[in-house]
Amino acid sequence: MDQKSVWVGTNWKMNKGPGEAIAAADALASFKLPEGVRAFVTPPLTSLKDVASILQDSPVMVGAQTMYWEDSGAWTGEVSAPMIAECGASCVLLGHSERRQNFGETDWTVNRKVQAALRHGLRPLICIGDLLDEYEAGVSQETLARQTKIALNGLSREDLRQVVVIYEPVWAIGSSGRPADPPFVSEIHTKLRSVVEEIAGHDGSIRIPLLYGGSVSRANIRDYVALSDVDGVLIGRAGWDPEDFMSLIASVGDLVSVKAGA
Ligand SMILES: O=C(COP(=O)(O)O)[C@@H](O)CO
């Protein structure tokens, strides 16, 4: 039976040059995570190796924000799973909506990347999300089920134990987004739980963590983490300052035991 944890990550996106990233990693290095919390940070590639090296003895995991599915070759500008792993990363964000919208990622290219990450021992942190017009048309669930099923297509049971799925409504992300209402997130995650259980089995031996992301802040983090089918959050702006990130993690530490008993 997979143990229940609360996951809290922060994605730095295209922020922090190497100097700032190293300073932030130094600040995170001495942080004592509350028991049962699994934390991760995804710095830009320019500081991935430095941040991973600073955090190598810390429980805070380090991941890349994207990668390509081939291992090497004539793919100018791309980086591969083995390169990311060699930098010391243990996970990688895949299919973030900013990649899907601005860089042409599709459900099927996300699947290729998921498979490549797993081949090289990287935990795929798979982002899925509905567009505003899909949300308004009431078809969010269909979009999310499709994205999830394709991302996980062809994975073995061992592979499924490694993946994390993150629901990030596109309309909730960034300064122009609005945080999704917790009851809506609860409904979506309950349905997502059935989708992943259809794939991984209903016996509970594999529990795929389902995270929420999109305008997570001090004001709402506990509302999301307290939901029974939400296993944690991915934070953007509110987590870029390492002190804020640590304080946000500390603010949900007590929910670990509440959820474990649920
Ligand atoms: O995109 C994300 C949400 O960003 P916010 O700034 O929290 O809206 C997610 O990937 C975390 O970076």
TrEMBL record:
Pathway: Carbohydrate biosynthesis; gluconeogenesis; Carbohydrate degradation; glycolysis; D-glyceraldehyde 3-phosphate from glycerone phosphate: step 1/1
EC number: 5.3.1.1
Keywords in alphabetical order: Cytoplasm, Gluconeogenesis, Glycolysis, Isomerase
Matches recorded under CDD domains: TIM
Family, as annotated: Belongs to the triosephosphate isomerase family.
Quaternary data: Homodimer.
Identification of the protein by name: Triosephosphate isomerase
Protein species of origin: Gluconobacter kanchanaburiensis NBRC 103587
High-level lineage: Bacteria, Pseudomonadati, Pseudomonadota, Alphaproteobacteria, Acetobacterales
